[in-house]
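Teaching assistant here, posting this on the class forum so everyone can see the example we discussed in section. The complex has two components, and the goal was to see what a joint structure prediction looks like when all of them are supplied at once.
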Amino acid sequence: MNTSVGSWGDSVVGTGALVRVILRRDRWLLLAWIVLLAGYPILGVQNASPGYVGLAESPGMLMLHGPLYAENRGALATWSSDDLLWMYGLVSLLIVIRHTRADEEAGRRDLLGATMAGRHAGLAAALAVTWAGNLVLALVTAGGEVAQGLPAAGSLAAGLKLAAVGCTFAAVGAVVAQLTESAAAARGIGGAVLGAAFVLRAASDATGAVDGGPWLSWLSPLGLANEIRPFATERWWLLALFAVLVVALTAAAVALSARRDVGAGLVRPGLGPARATPGLRGPLALAWRLHWGPLLGWVVGLAVIAGVFAGAAESAGEVFADSEQLRSMFERLGGRAGASDVFLAGTFSILGIIAAGYAVQAGLRLRTEEEQFRAEPVLATATARLRWIASHLAFSLLGPAAALAAAGLVSGLVYGITVDDVGGQIPRLLGAAMVQLIGVWVLTGIVAALFGLVPRLAPAAWAAWVAFLVLLLLDAFDQVGQTLLDLSPFTHLPKLPGGHLDPTPLGWVLGTAVALVIVGLLGFRRRDVGRT
Amino acid sequence: MTSTTAEAVIAVAGLRKSFGPTRALDSLDLSVGAGEVHGFLGPNGAGKTTMIRILLGLMRADGGSARLLGRDPWRDATQLHRQIAYVPGDVALWPSLTGGEVIDLLGRMRGGLDGKRRDELLERFDLDPRKKGRAYSKGNRQKVPLVAALASDAELLLLDEPTSGLDPLMEAEFRQVIAEDQQERGRTVLLSSHILNEVEALCDRVTIIRAGRAVETGTLAQLRHLTRTSVSVELTGSTQELGGLGGVQDLQVDGTRVRFGVDSAGLPGVLSFLGAAGVHSVVCQPPTLEELFLRHYETQPSLAEPGPGGTR
């Protein structure tokens, strides 16, 4: 442990060079981040409608979006895009961890540490890039909103509100990156902090609407950001409060970083078993050891989201009855049926795309294992190639099944309780959730095919996932033509519950998934392993 | 094992492999007999790892032929791997698994592990099997697949720079273990390395590879014929005529002290001259593999510098 680390100036020497390294490595990622996340609220302006006013009063919508502060176009637009406010925090959190703990875990920090970079230079560079990106995002958002005729002050506040969330969780990322030796654990802890902030805000807003004054929400950075109230007599001073919060978190991260060794965390890993259990004897058992932690997180996460949405379903259904426009928006997501069913079906299409995120993540484990030379020793044993690739694809195929089943069960239980029909709703909503699996498997297929044929491009499966997500969101706003929508497997799934189940398109989607997986398996059997 | 003793355990002829414009293997020949410890010597980037990956069926050759234990390493990979143990040059462990778990897992996936031998090797290599993958230093990480390979009953060991990262003490232990293993089990070992005295200490035969081509192969004795002995003498008589003798090179005279190199053909002449001239002391050194190596790479000396890390 080294606590005397020289002057502050020395410790950040080389930050500029590291900033350039990050910009070089992540230029496309950063660009996509800013374009997509600035585009979302800008798009929201076009769709802002007075119909939101009634909707915003329902507890379910309050949980998802937070409160609506005024009835002008700007405030309505801001409210409509507040459902993804947490996403701005998540992206910043992940970027900071990627360039601090993940680098350190991969040993790249040692390389840099041996050059002239100071002790805190890596941390400083990651934060500088993320903060600057957030400010650019804020300005692009503000500019886009002004361009659509919204007041300049409100637009700026709306942009800075997003940046405030982003910068805060960037600093949270800086803190959690100091705690553990593994980047995955740091992401888990950071995600839990963000989840807690969301739950705190959601619970406070949903109940505060009844009790008067959602003060608990102020304890969550997400709730605090909403209180900036763009387009509703902006409270600029809250930005100063965010600045203080960011500085305090950053100071904590620096203090933690100064008292630990490079590569080490504050939490020291203990010793494990000297011998493998008798069960640890093949590639599938190994894959289970590698996958079960993240899988558990996804299953629980999906179940919680499903429970929250299902709890809001009935009240949302009541509001739909009054608003023709909202009803049509959710119908495009969830199909034509009873109002609550429409809401639930929309929920399941969102849960489907989230589960598909796990499918991509689990499938790409194949590529990580190969790239980091961990596939080679396994394939040099009597393990056949097909058995090895199947051991990881099994998680990409069946992991989402487990997550969607949990989501279906929990939503059936919660919604069943609200409508007093648990026995009837559980099988109905379970079935509705499981239908999404067919679409999810297409993403498993895309990962498998890319990995088998052009492994270097395997991470491009994330691009397909983002494209499907964007198509889903745009579809809700009726923004794109059918030809484009047809590219997404999720477009072809029946809108359940309530919708009509047509087996033909379902069969095509399933066939596509199966074909892609087979292409991947055959491709992998033929190609070189290791150097690709 | 009985069926394969007659023919070479590893028979590689004219093996070619390119990665895009880079030619990694350029008509490589290699032959390793049963029970032999064969050194596979070359600088980083010479193609050692690529050839081992082809022998393991992880990569497919563009041309030429490779036979392992009489079989095709690409087509019969899975069956062959029951008879082979492999230690990669780039050892990466799973961060959440302990070293002991990895050793057992690799052993079981290969088809069995000698538990007693495993424990004995752990002790000799001073490796704590309870540590998690990410907690090992580079050297200790390297020991994990080494123990798994040596505790297996494989008849062929493919070791790709197995001692990179080991400290000198452990390197010595490694040599000892390989030598004993060789006496007790008589397995065939292919040992790739850029560490010359390691190969010198362990190997019966050596193949030197450069830019994807075998430039020299043979027993150490055969290869020594290609180089010269360095001689350092203190003469009582005159040094005058020494420079005129056939085969003497790089003559350095410092008073009565003389250093020079002499090739094998010139050795008898030099010895009879020294006997006649009278000597106080004489030191003759056989050529080290360093010299052999430098001779083959003298056009590109920078390549021969052993670097840290593995080859890719």
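For the discussion questions: Residues 57 and 77 of chain B are 5 Å apart (CA to CA). The two ends of chain B are 32 Å apart (CA to CA). Think about how each of these relates to the inputs above.
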